Amino acid sequence: MRNAFHEQLDGIFDDLATICGQVEVAVARATRALLEADSSLAEQVISDDAEIDHAREKVEDSALSLLSLQAPVAGDLRVVVSALRMVSDLERMGDLSVHVAKISRLRTPGYAVPDAARPTIARMAEIAEEMVGRTAEIIRTRDIEAADQLRAADDEMDQLRRQTFADLLAKDWQHGVEAAVDLALLGRYYERIADHAVSVASRVVFVVTGETPS
Amino acid sequence: MRNAFHEQLDGIFDDLATICGQVEVAVARATRALLEADSSLAEQVISDDAEIDHAREKVEDSALSLLSLQAPVAGDLRVVVSALRMVSDLERMGDLSVHVAKISRLRTPGYAVPDAARPTIARMAEIAEEMVGRTAEIIRTRDIEAADQLRAADDEMDQLRRQTFADLLAKDWQHGVEAAVDLALLGRYYERIADHAVSVASRVVFVVTGETPS
């Protein structure tokens, strides 16, 4: 039988999945703003981030209230603390989407990403968005196999990050310093979004199994 | 009279101050490795990071044990949760020092930072190191005025970050794309170290006053 503690915990995990869904939208929109030089969409990502911050506060309040009222110990305690960490990761992923949107906004009406680097960045963005979507699903379903698989996607991300450096350091790079710096930072932001997604998924594994994947 | 809870909590804050001291050393060494192209010092920063990670785990275990055994509520609970967040920030600052060390290692025997950009990066590094040192002191003394002053240093950091962009995007930048990208990333790493220092200091203010500075 499920008790009050586990019901409240389920509520927190529902909220985490919802926030992860909001982050997925933020990543998708920031990418579209970037690749289509759409400054109003970039503005929207930047202003909508307040909703993610607000949702984070709500989860933190719920988790603290759960700790206060139920005083969980051992495994239950670690699960609540994991939820607090997950919501920090998710908020940070939202911030990183804002960073992408700001680079886009800075360059409109031009494009931040030159055509030559477009496939790499588009693929990084696609992986990041997909990883965030899968992470939301992993929070919902507690599917630890899916969490393990997420690491494979992260490997491709690391490879693409190296590719961005190879692109912009190649002798035939003709797009100047500004585009190179944008590209390096964009690569960093998408890579960090993916890192945080893996971190959230690992915490789900911990919540289910009591062990952190190595 | 101080009870067992507060004694254990003091122990956790002592550990946090010690970790912050380790981070200060990491930032200082990473900077020296960078500016003096000292690859063995860079290696040391990279390998010593495991100690910070280990110390983080120890603080987490102590905080969880405190939550389990004492089941604090209200303000006391929030203080313990703040300690958990502070140790996350500190570990991340260690990781960022490693990122600086890795850029240094990648370019040795050459210098990652061209002479023209040296003053800006040296100043950013100096501010970061100083901010981390002051943060360790703030954790030790719970000096909330010093925590407020830390923000002023962060403003200069933001200004210098903009300066790095102005430098590398200037028409007379003659150091190529690679150095520009290194500079943009180094600027980002030092800025993030400073951000985390402000975050840690703000949590100290919260611990003392019960309110987060705006």
UniProtKB/TrEMBL annotation, chains A, B:
It comes from the Bacteria. One of its GO terms (cellular component) is cytoplasm. It holds the Pfam family PhoU. It is found in: Cytoplasm. InterPro entries: PhoU, PhoU-like_sf, PhoU_dom. Belongs to the PhoU family. This is Phosphate-specific transport system accessory protein PhoU.
